[in-house]
Amino acid sequence: AHTIGQASCQFFSYRLYNYRSTGTSDPSLERSSLRELQSICPASSSSALAALDKGSKDVWDNMYYKNIIAGNGLLESDAELFADGSTRGLVSLYARSGNDFGVAFARSMVKLSNVGVRTHANGGDGEIRRLCQVPNF
């Protein structure tokens, strides 16, 4: 779903300035993307936003996967999809074929919708959060 939207600098700026406590940037980031992201997210800022999908942040397409292959994955988890041998083939397939990506995404959404949320109301201990990053109280 990272083909649309933005992320706050606070969630990835460590990749730009102090990757894994090295004092340098993530070597997997493409250099021009690194410079662009550093201009959007100065070291002192955490509230700015950057596109999850460089070049087509408001368009549903497979550019996200092309960006990952080119070293332009914004989040580390995005970049890891191509670095990991178990998911690299899917990234390559979806980069080549927007249709294959669309079909797989639709199937995964149907599957996810059938999981069922185990909330307190139905005997579980889960919750549907009002704000994703904060547990409900």
UniProtKB/TrEMBL annotation:
<dbReference type="GO" id="GO:0046872">
    <property type="term" value="F:metal ion binding"/>
</dbReference>
<dbReference type="GO" id="GO:0140825">
    <property type="term" value="F:lactoperoxidase activity"/>
</dbReference>
<keyword id="KW-0349">Heme</keyword>
<keyword id="KW-0575">Peroxidase</keyword>
<comment type="similarity">
    <text>Belongs to the peroxidase family.</text>
</comment>
<feature type="binding site">
    <location>
        <position position="53"/>
    </location>
    <ligand>
        <name>Ca(2+)</name>
    </ligand>
</feature>
<dbReference type="Pfam" id="PF00141">
    <property type="entry name" value="peroxidase"/>
</dbReference>
<feature type="disulfide bond">
    <location>
        <begin position="9"/>
        <end position="41"/>
    </location>
</feature>
<feature type="binding site">
    <location>
        <position position="61"/>
    </location>
    <ligand>
        <name>Ca(2+)</name>
    </ligand>
</feature>
<dbReference type="InterPro" id="IPR000823">
    <property type="entry name" value="Peroxidase_pln"/>
</dbReference>
<dbReference type="InterPro" id="IPR002016">
    <property type="entry name" value="Haem_peroxidase"/>
</dbReference>
<keyword id="KW-0106">Calcium</keyword>
<dbReference type="GO" id="GO:0006979">
    <property type="term" value="P:response to oxidative stress"/>
</dbReference>
<feature type="binding site" description="axial binding residue">
    <location>
        <position position="2"/>
    </location>
    <ligand>
        <name>heme b</name>
    </ligand>
</feature>
<feature type="binding site">
    <location>
        <position position="3"/>
    </location>
    <ligand>
        <name>Ca(2+)</name>
    </ligand>
</feature>
<keyword id="KW-0479">Metal-binding</keyword>
<keyword id="KW-1015">Disulfide bond</keyword>
<keyword id="KW-0560">Oxidoreductase</keyword>
<protein>
    <recommendedName>
        <fullName>Plant heme peroxidase family profile domain-containing protein</fullName>
    </recommendedName>
</protein>
<feature type="domain" description="Plant heme peroxidase family profile">
    <location>
        <begin position="1"/>
        <end position="136"/>
    </location>
</feature>
<keyword id="KW-0408">Iron</keyword>
<dbReference type="GO" id="GO:0020037">
    <property type="term" value="F:heme binding"/>
</dbReference>
<dbReference type="InterPro" id="IPR010255">
    <property type="entry name" value="Haem_peroxidase_sf"/>
</dbReference>
